[in-house]
Amino acid sequence: MSEHKGPSRRMLLGAMAAGGAAMTTGMARAAGDPAITELQPWMRSLGDGVDAHPYGMPSPFEAHVKRRNVEWLTADPVSSVNFTPIHELDGIITPNGLCFERHHSGIARVDPSLHRLMINGLVDREIVFTMDDLKRFPRYNRIHFLECAANSGMEWRGAQLNGCQFTHGMIHNVMYTGVMLRDVLAAAGVKPTGTWLLAEGADAAAMTRSIPMEKALDDCMIAFKMNGEALRPEQGYPVRLVVPGWEGNMWVKWLRRIEIGDQPWQHREETSKYTDLLPDGRARRFTYEMDAKSVITNPSPQAPLSHGKGPTVLTGIAWSGRGTIPRVDVTLDGGRNWHQARMDGPSLEKSMHRFYFDFDWDGRPLLLQSRAHDSTGYVQPTKDALRAIRGPDSIYHNNGIQTWHVDERGEAENVEVG
């Protein structure tokens, strides 16, 4: 196993020479390029004025960058999921319009003036809040990832979906603005016997999840904005629960009621669903935390290498529900040799991290993998290591190492290696 400790002077000079050669080739191509020598249409006339698009939209040349679903995955798109195009993004913040959706009864269209949040159960005083009431509590901003527990779930039995948007795209990472759940609960006065709470949504499914009081009083939020603007309807407008580092099904959208109790409620979403099936037929319950995970987003099946041999930038994302990601390793040969990637951008608790690995591709096939290390010392396992413990019949919490095969043409495919 070899470890990449950083560039030497010889490596830097080699990279500069390779980059210079690439630029020289590019300049040679540009000599007769009509994109350089001729005026383009947008250079010949005035563009739209400042009021043409009161809410800004992406360039039409980026129209392919969008959420996508898998039609055969569910019987009906009303209770279904679509996927974030993580292969088209960089940095760590997901644009609001690209955050994946998961609904159990479609998107609730809630009038904020008629929306209420009730706190009841084992409390000193039952309270009903309007949206204006909630916004009078101290306000906080936190950047966190939200990952569906079923993210990568279709891959338990082997490579299946050909694109990281579909294998790993049930995740997004945004800045939430809202109030701390503990402050709202303090206004109601939780009784000493109140050790659990039930969060309920206002959608037609009446989504409910039990949450331990320790978590509720730690870092949970009631959010009404993401990335600076109001929540989108598909993300729970006007208000949702934020449960950092824990499975997305617990982040109840269109939050309308919180009941305090002395035990979990054992509702559908924590019994028949969102439990982890083991080989002997038993199921692990209350596996809330999302384990450390990573994926290479470029190159990948939806983002092939199109530039040919030479300087190449490999990039991806990593995250952990237990802390930060101080290190990611990558391999170009299916795990024979590992190299330490370069981490770049903010390193925040229970948030995405961006990594890069710059190398000179010689045109030979690649077997790409990434392996995340989180701040607790946990190391992302292989899929075989997970299956050895949990078998092949699970759905949730698949954080195994992903492999992409890149051929001589730069095309990538979802594969597994032993």
From TrEMBL:
InterPro entries associated with the record: Ig_E-set, MoCF_OxRdtse_dimer, Mopterin_OxRdtase_euk, OxRdtase_Mopterin-bd_dom, OxRdtase_Mopterin-bd_sf, Sulfite_DH_SoxC, TAT_signal
GO biological process, one term: sulfur compound metabolic process
Signal sequence extent: 1-30
Domain Oxidoreductase molybdopterin-binding: 104-266
Domain Moybdenum cofactor oxidoreductase dimerisation: 285-402
GO molecular function: heme binding; molybdenum ion binding; molybdopterin cofactor binding; sulfite oxidase activity
PROSITE patterns: TAT
Listed cofactors: Mo-molybdopterin
Record's keyword terms, sorted: Metal-binding, Molybdenum, Oxidoreductase, Signal
Protein name: Oxidoreductase molybdopterin binding domain protein
